[in-house]
Amino acid sequence: xxxxxxxxxxxxxxxxxxxxxxxxxxxxxxxxxxxxxxxxxxxxxxxxxxxxxxxxxxxxxxxxxxxxxxxxxxxxxxxxxxxxxxxxxxxxxxxxxxxxxxxxxxxxxxxxxxxxxxxxxxxxxxxxxxxxxxx
Length: 135
Hints:
Helix content is 65%, strand content 0%.
């Protein structure tokens, strides 16, 4: 009969860098806040005349989805650049809802820390590791 099937061995995922881990966390949490910001734009009806109010929800959801998608490739230079563009978009939303400036400052600061200090921390960790040991 059929011998017990052995489970397929999966290749282990390559370990993500500290920068990629930090940047993913920042974008993931920011995506939630940005979606909620879209709801605020809809609820306050602050869009210019001629733009339907529901566009606030759509724009907030679209930016949030792009943020979540960006978490998948933040370990590449294009991912970091996309993240910076998203930070600018969040900052520009402060023209509609001034409270979004606070969100842009908080998350923009965390993004800057993750993308600027992350590689420095990794380099220091590699330099301090004993010979032949990889992290």
